[in-house]
Amino acid sequence: MQYRNDKNGNPISLLGYGCMRFTTNMGAIDIDKAEKEIMEAYNAGINYFDTAYIYTGSEAALGTILKKNNIRDKVKIATKLPQYLVNNNTALDRYFNEELSRLQTDYVDYYLMHHLTDFVAWENLKKNGVLEWIAEKKKSGAIRNIGFSFHGDTEMFMKILHDYDWDICLVQYNYLDEFAQAGRAGVEEAHRLGIPVLIMEPLRGGKLVDLLPETAKKMIKENPRGWSPAEWAFRWLFNQEAVTCVLSGMNSIQMIQENCRVASEAKAGEFTQDDLDFLEKIKKEINSKMKVNCTACRYCMPCPKNVDIPAIFRCYNEMYTESKHSGRWEFAQTVGLRKQNQTASMCIGCGKCEKHCPQNIAIREELKKADKALRPITYKVGIAIAKRFMLKK
Fold first, then answer.
1. Per-residue CA distances from 22 to 15, 27, 37, 250 (Å)
2. 59-63, 159-163, 219-223, 359-363: lowest mean pLDDT where?
3. Is 245 part of a structural domain of the chain?
4. pTM higher than 0.85, yes or no?
């Protein structure tokens, strides 16, 4: 296993263990199977284990396994504050203490503000005294490093990133999402600031393996590198010095062994131009089912009514390159839950965007189609309820 250091010089394994996808049996985590897998990962050199308050049973399972095998102090635990549930400062201690109890520990190595999508969520935490609370917990040693996990756009990521002296951040990033959410610009900016970047969804929840077009699978199989679809995705991330650790929700021994092999071999800067060109061809095959030929160049922005045109088209396309649920879920997370309404319903049809679009997209017409597809009535209601709950509107 290879390691890259955190902000304080502590080594973090290049491959981290995402604890959201433990195998379940009759609705409960299969603790015996999870133990075998965690110990396989630990013995292979993985020292970073990521969980969260809302991952049902995950914190308790991880805590039990680490204590049973007497390795708590030999690994790094990352868990997360459910900031969307915090409405007063007493809630901070309540959730944190519950997490410590589940994890059977008296400290957390990396504590993240979970699922920030909008700056207003971070502002709400500050109003509830989170800065003072963090300072006290770090002073006592109960929290060693503080960070945040993010789902939103690049601009919002930059705003949160620069608002506090973070120790770490966790973002969704893969070769298909290179310019989505925090994106390459966000990852590289965090690295420039000396903030370690951890990656979630390196395989888009397995979609860069299981749901690849047959043409793309054939191209990968015939490539002289001999890498599997998953290996291409992991190596693309490991190739970047700005990436500190890539999380994988591994739930088989075979998967752990294969991913650990890749993490032990991959080197930053190993990709040739041919490799990069090849992945561009794979992306082209994946995107061949896209509804709108939007490249996210953002020449159409800013919109006078703040409609996030590129984000909407990206989610709309995802409905057809992956699944309807996937696209709608991505839309809900990255656009629907923003404090300011930036959905296509705000479009006034001025046409300013179309004058600047290098792809000559009929943006106004396509926005209507996208909005209808992304926001059926059930999703409109669900997003409204979630927005009211998470943003305290």
1. 17, 11, 9, 8
2. 359-363
3. yes
4. no
